Amino acid sequence: MTTDTVSLDQLVAWLARFRELVSQQQGYLTELDSAIGDADHGSNMTRGMTAVMEKIGVSHDDGTQATLVDELFKSVGMTLVTSVGGASGPLYGTFFLRMGTTAGPVTTLDGAALSAALRAGLGGVVARGKAEAGDKTMFDAMAPALDALDASLATGGDCVTATAAAFSAAKAGRDATEPLVARKGRASYLGERSSGHLDPGATSTALLFEALADTLGQAPA
Amino acid sequence: MKKLINAPEAVLADALTGIAAAHPELNVDHVNRIIYRGTPTKAGKVALISGGGSGHEPLHGGFVGFGMLDAACAGEVFTSPTPDQMQEATKVADSGAGVLHIVKNYTGDVMNFEMAAEMAEAETGVKVSAVVVNDDVAVEDSTWTAGRRGVGTTVFLEKIVGAAAEEGRDLAAITALANLVNASGRSMGMALTSCTVPSAGKPTFEIPDDMMEIGVGIHGEPGRHRVALAGAASIAQQLVDPVLADLDFTSGPVIAMLNGMGGTPLIELYLMYGEVAKLLEKAGVTVARSLVGNYITSLDMAGCSVTLLKVDDELLKLWDAPVNTSGLRWGL
């Protein structure tokens, strides 16, 4: 039996899985972005997450230089900010920077702490991007995911079931962006023509929660 | 794709090498991809830093020098630079009087400059203020979009505010002036053909030979509408009308710019300016100064844009003040 917490190694594994997913779906993300944006979301996210794994995966046997959660997420956030560019860099970068600040100098996160850190990350995305529900952005996948996570934890769910619920909600949120008319970012200039396409940012956000659910859903080592 | 490049991924690095070779009076930091003045900013002068995606040359690197910018951050083609670049630019340009960030209104640019300002204030205590240029009248619905894009007025702003900074005005005065210039300028652009981003290798949008895009953005963003190709007089009308409809330019003199998008020869730009000048005269607009040429481009896009700026004696004086950059040079 393990206690219901997420370890630093699991958080690193989450990031590694996210890198794997964005890299596998790089072409798809870019294709979505070429329909309503500037055709670089897949390559930008892959470049950014590759830089992240290079930065945090150097030299230590346990796969990370950071020994505390806040160090890890601050390093991830700064690396994304400086390597991705465009809007995704500041948005994902701020997400991880705020997660780190809220998580603090700890080595594990329980469900409540994980939720609080993710909420702070979402707050950072909102502060940076000023997006609201229905603007056809990453917010539309992330906000429902965190609501589902909290609902699951509140009814006694553990981290595995809560993150699985978050992933389901993120997917549903992603899919719900298809008919929306974009009100933020470059897609907003298309007006009605942005409807009928999935939002690339919501799609990569669903991958972020897929990676989390995948990682925690595996039997602990 | 036929371009004078070595490899798509090396375009920016190779271009910076060329800029350094051609302009020994400038410093080029190839690691951080910033261009800054060869002579340090004098003490007490507010530093002007701009930047953005590459592909709009001479903007912004071509406007670094006496009378305009202190430093410019170059992003990948059509991709915003990152906050660490702006941090480095701030380090080399700040003389203690603070820094003005000149930002064109694109989501990525605005976010990256905001982060840079937060980081600068938190880490070094440098005072940073920002002006976000949003002068493109082609974007009609600013409430439900990312807002009007920053285009031609950026050139006017960097020149006029640059001259004021050389006079030693403080950061608050510089920021107020920058906001005044932004509020006084309007632009409208059009494209005959698409640009081709080197890393994409193919045109950003398809457009038939007998059509044109009215209201296009400087990254090939869609405009207000796509219409049948027409003569220069009609095109001029389709650009000037929405600009004049958006702001009253008859109450005083204006500076007018007829800007090329990068793929249109100067003879056509002058021809177009002639048409624009006729329309402005007919509308009762007095042109005090004009600028015709490629100043804020969109790679190899064929097309042009019109920018008008309302000015008074003060702004005209700042416009006429000496400037020594590779993109604008006079009065020396």
List the helices and strands and how they pair.
The complex is a heterodimer of chains A (221) and B (332).
Chain A: E1 5-7, H1 8-24, H2 26-36, H3 41-56, H4 69-84, H5 88-103, E2 108-110, H6 111-129, H7 139-154, H8 159-176, H9 200-217
Antiparallel strand pairs in A: 1-2
Chain B: H1 11-22, E1 26-29, E2 34-37, E3 47-54, E4 71-77, H2 83-93, E5 99-104, H3 107-123, E6 128-133, H4 153-166, H5 171-184, E7 185-191, E8 211-214, E9 225-228, H6 232-246, E10 253-260, H7 266-282, E11 286-293, E12 303-310, H8 313-320, E13 323-324, E14 329-330
Parallel strand pairs in B: 3-4, 3-5, 5-6, 10-11
Antiparallel strand pairs in B: 1-2, 2-4, 7-8, 7-12, 8-9, 10-12, 13-14
Helix pairs in contact in B: 2-3, 4-5, 4-8, 6-7
What this model shows, in words?
- The complex is a heterodimer of chains A (221) and B (332).
- The radius of gyration of chain A is 16 Å and the shape is globular.
- Chain A is mainly alpha-helical and 221 residues long.
- Chain A has one domain (5-217): DhaL domain (Serine Threonine Protein Phosphatase 5, Tetratricopeptide repeat).
- Chain A has 9 helices and 2 strands.
- In chain A, strands 1-2 form a two-stranded antiparallel sheet.
- In chain B, helix 4 packs antiparallel against helix 5 and helix 6 crosses helix 7.
- In chain B, the strands form 3 sheets. A 6-stranded mixed beta sheet of chain B has the order 1-2-4-3-5-6, sandwiched between helices. A 6-stranded mixed beta sheet of chain B has the order 9-8-7-12-10-11. Chain B has a two-stranded antiparallel sheet with strand order 13-14.
- Chain B has 332 residues and is an alpha/beta fold.
- In chain B, strand 1 and strand 2 form a beta hairpin.
- The model of chain B has no long low-confidence stretch (mean pLDDT 95).
- Chain B folds into 2 domains: 11-184, Dihydroxyacetone kinase, domain 1 (Rossmann fold); 185-319, Hypothetical Protein Tm841, Chain: A,domain 3 (2-Layer Sandwich), CATH 3.30.1180.20.
- Chains A and B meet through helix 4 and helix 5 of A and helix 3 of B.
- Chain B: Pfam families: Dak1.
- Chain B: GO terms for molecular function: glycerone kinase activity; phosphoenolpyruvate-glycerone phosphotransferase activity.
- Chain B: This is phosphoenolpyruvate--glycerone phosphotransferase.
